[in-house]
Amino acid sequence: MKPIQLFVLKNCPHCRLALRYQQELLEEHPQWREIPLRVVDEAAEAAYADTFDYYYVPCYYVDGVKLHEGHAEKADVEAVFRAAAEETINV
Protein backbone atom coordinates (compact mmCIF):
# COMPACT_ATOMS: atom_id res chain seq x y z
CA MET A 1 0.00 0.00 0.00
CA LYS A 2 1.19 3.46 -0.87
CA PRO A 3 0.89 6.41 1.53
CA ILE A 4 -1.67 9.15 0.94
CA GLN A 5 -1.21 12.81 1.83
CA LEU A 6 -4.23 15.08 1.77
CA PHE A 7 -3.75 18.85 1.91
CA VAL A 8 -6.72 20.76 3.31
CA LEU A 9 -7.77 24.06 4.81
CA LYS A 10 -9.91 24.02 7.94
CA ASN A 11 -12.78 26.16 6.63
CA CYS A 12 -12.80 24.90 3.04
CA PRO A 13 -16.20 23.41 2.10
CA HIS A 14 -14.60 21.28 -0.64
CA CYS A 15 -12.16 19.84 1.91
CA ARG A 16 -14.98 18.99 4.31
CA LEU A 17 -16.81 17.24 1.48
CA ALA A 18 -13.71 15.23 0.51
CA LEU A 19 -13.21 14.23 4.15
CA ARG A 20 -16.84 13.11 4.36
CA TYR A 21 -16.47 11.00 1.22
CA GLN A 22 -13.24 9.62 2.61
CA GLN A 23 -15.00 8.53 5.82
CA GLU A 24 -17.82 6.90 3.84
CA LEU A 25 -15.31 5.00 1.70
CA LEU A 26 -13.36 3.81 4.75
CA GLU A 27 -16.60 2.44 6.18
CA GLU A 28 -17.41 0.71 2.87
CA HIS A 29 -13.85 -0.63 2.44
CA PRO A 30 -12.41 -1.32 5.92
CA GLN A 31 -9.22 -2.74 4.41
CA TRP A 32 -8.34 0.79 3.24
CA ARG A 33 -7.94 1.87 6.88
CA GLU A 34 -4.51 0.21 6.73
CA ILE A 35 -3.33 2.72 4.11
CA PRO A 36 -0.99 5.28 5.69
CA LEU A 37 -2.87 8.59 5.55
CA ARG A 38 -1.62 12.02 6.54
CA VAL A 39 -4.01 14.96 6.51
CA VAL A 40 -2.01 18.19 6.32
CA ASP A 41 -3.67 21.44 7.38
CA GLU A 42 -2.09 23.87 4.95
CA ALA A 43 -2.44 26.79 7.38
CA ALA A 44 -0.91 24.93 10.34
CA GLU A 45 1.92 23.38 8.30
CA ALA A 46 2.51 26.10 5.71
CA ALA A 47 6.26 25.55 5.35
CA TYR A 48 5.73 21.84 4.67
CA ALA A 49 2.80 22.46 2.32
CA ASP A 50 4.91 24.93 0.34
CA THR A 51 7.28 22.11 -0.62
CA PHE A 52 4.49 20.57 -2.76
CA ASP A 53 3.30 21.77 -6.16
CA TYR A 54 -0.43 22.45 -5.93
CA TYR A 55 -2.76 25.43 -5.92
CA TYR A 56 -6.21 24.17 -4.89
CA VAL A 57 -7.37 22.14 -1.90
CA PRO A 58 -8.27 19.46 -1.28
CA CYS A 59 -5.21 17.99 -2.92
CA TYR A 60 -4.35 14.29 -2.78
CA TYR A 61 -0.88 12.83 -3.26
CA VAL A 62 -0.26 9.09 -3.41
CA ASP A 63 3.32 8.01 -2.81
CA GLY A 64 4.48 11.55 -3.61
CA VAL A 65 2.54 11.84 -6.90
CA LYS A 66 -0.34 14.32 -7.17
CA LEU A 67 -3.49 12.41 -8.14
CA HIS A 68 -6.24 14.93 -7.50
CA GLU A 69 -6.48 18.67 -6.88
CA GLY A 70 -9.53 20.82 -6.17
CA HIS A 71 -13.19 19.94 -5.71
CA ALA A 72 -13.58 16.17 -5.40
CA GLU A 73 -16.55 13.92 -5.92
CA LYS A 74 -16.78 10.55 -4.18
CA ALA A 75 -15.47 8.79 -7.31
CA ASP A 76 -12.35 11.01 -7.24
CA VAL A 77 -11.60 10.13 -3.63
CA GLU A 78 -12.26 6.46 -4.36
CA ALA A 79 -9.75 6.56 -7.24
CA VAL A 80 -7.13 7.95 -4.86
CA PHE A 81 -7.69 5.15 -2.36
CA ARG A 82 -7.71 2.50 -5.08
CA ALA A 83 -4.40 3.83 -6.38
CA ALA A 84 -2.93 3.76 -2.87
CA ALA A 85 -4.22 0.22 -2.35
CA GLU A 86 -2.86 -0.62 -5.81
CA GLU A 87 -6.27 -1.82 -6.94
CA THR A 88 -7.54 -1.47 -10.48
CA ILE A 89 -10.89 0.05 -11.34
CA ASN A 90 -13.12 -2.03 -13.57
CA VAL A 91 -14.67 0.22 -16.20
From TrEMBL:
Gene3D superfamilies, sorted: Glutaredoxin (3.40.30.10)
Mind telling me which InterPro entries this protein's record contains? Thioredoxin-like_sf
Question: What name appears for this protein in its UniProt entry?
Answer: Thioredoxin
